[in-house]
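User: Could you check the structure of this?
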Amino acid sequence: MNFIKTLLCAAVLAVVAIPTANAQLSLGAGIAYGTDISEIGIQARGMYQFNETWRGSLDFIYFLDGVEGFSFFELNPNAHYIFSDSGQAVFYAIGGLTIAFATVDFGPFGGSQSDSDIGLNIGAGTTIDLGGIQGQAEVKYTLGGFEQLVLSA
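Assistant: Sure, the predicted structure tokens are below.
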């Protein structure tokens, strides 16, 4: 399990270090908090701007639960409908899917148990120009499966 956490941290750092190759594609990292799991997670995200109104995002959140042998993560493909763009700040609605995975490793008792579920994301977010980098904050609620409110920045 420590190897997976180390690999994930290295992947997040690599994503942060990658410059944006095209104005339409952006990559980044951040933190998230899930209200049902009550834990902080690390997030890696890619976004693609299709036009002035629509963009797509794909993010991966690994929640740092601190419990030996337990892991929980999400893969979230979302669509963003941009309803306000002032040049300095963008406000958007979120709709998409959550594909959530939970695993429990029973250690010396042997074996493990995994579960996954799919839910619908609804929410809102903003992207703010911070002079050379962009800050982003989102609030989204997952309906179905592992239901929870997720706050991310």
